[in-house]
Amino acid sequence: MDMEKLTKQQIVLVTLLVSFVTSIATGIVTVALMDQAPAGVTQTINRVVERTIEKVVTPPADNSAAVITREVVVVKEDDKIVESVDKNKDSIVRIYANNNNAGDVQAKQFIGLGTIVSKDGLIATGDIFADMSGQYLVTIDNNIFYNVAILAKKETDQFYFLKIIQSKKSPVVFTPVTFSDSDNLKLGQTVIAWGGQVQNSVSTGIVSSLIDQANKSEETNFQTATTTLREIVAINTNINLTDSISGGPLLNLYGEMVGLRVSPSLSDKYTFIPANILKKEVVNYASIQ
C-alpha cells in the first residue's frame, strides 16, 4: 500500500486502527506488570479510595434550577489512619500502681493501658491487676493523675472496669471511644492497635481470623422458636504485637472501637475481645459512682 496515495478518509481509518491496537497492547502489558509487581506496590494502589461529593448550590432569586456539582476526592488509607488515631488520643489512659502511696511520680509502676468508655470516667482494661487491694492511678496526658476504683468482674471475663474517682462538685467530662458493631467485622479488614508504655504508639494490620460461637434464642408471646445466632467472641489480627501491654483499643478506619486488647491466658491465644461484649457490660457498670 502506497501511504502517499491514501485519501484523507483512509488516513483517519488507519489512525483509528493503530490507536485501537495500541490501547489493547497497553492494557495487556499493564495487567501483566501488575501481576508481577511486589505486594507493596499493588497494596498501595488498592488503598486509594475515591468518593464522590455532591454539592447542591442554592438557586438565585430568579428561581432558576439548582446546580449540582460533583467532585472526586481521593482518600488515602494513611489519611484515615491518622484521623482515627487523632480522634481517640484523649480516650486512652495509662494505668500505674502507686506502690508507696506517697504521690511520688517516679515511684509509680506502669502496668497497662485503659480505654475510656463513658463520659463520667468508666475505663475498660485487660486482666492486669496482681493486687486487687492496691492503689492505682491513671493519666491521659502524663500531667494530671486520677485515683481509680477497681470494679468487680466476672471470673470468666478477661477484662476489668475501673472508675475514675473525682469530685462531685466539679466533675470532669471525659472523651469516650465510639463503639462499633464488632459482629460486622470482616476478614481482611484494616484495623489499628494502640500501645505504648511511655508515649502513644500504633500498629496497623488486618483481621486475620474471627472466633465465633452459637447463641440460641428466642421466645415470643405467640410461639416458642429457637434461632441460632452467631456471635464473635474473639478477634485475631496479623499485627506483630511485641509488647505485653494490654488495655488498648483496636480501632477501624472510622475511629470506632472494634475490640480491646487483653492479656492472653495460657489456654487462650486470642488477643482482642470484641467491642460488643464490652458494650453489654458498660450498661451494667456505667451507673456505679
From TrEMBL:
<dbReference type="Pfam" id="PF13365">
    <property type="entry name" value="Trypsin_2"/>
</dbReference>
<keyword id="KW-0812">Transmembrane</keyword>
<keyword id="KW-0472">Membrane</keyword>
<protein>
    <recommendedName>
        <fullName>Serine protease</fullName>
    </recommendedName>
</protein>
<feature type="transmembrane region" description="Helical">
    <location>
        <begin position="12"/>
        <end position="34"/>
    </location>
</feature>
<dbReference type="InterPro" id="IPR009003">
    <property type="entry name" value="Peptidase_S1_PA"/>
</dbReference>
<keyword id="KW-1133">Transmembrane helix</keyword>
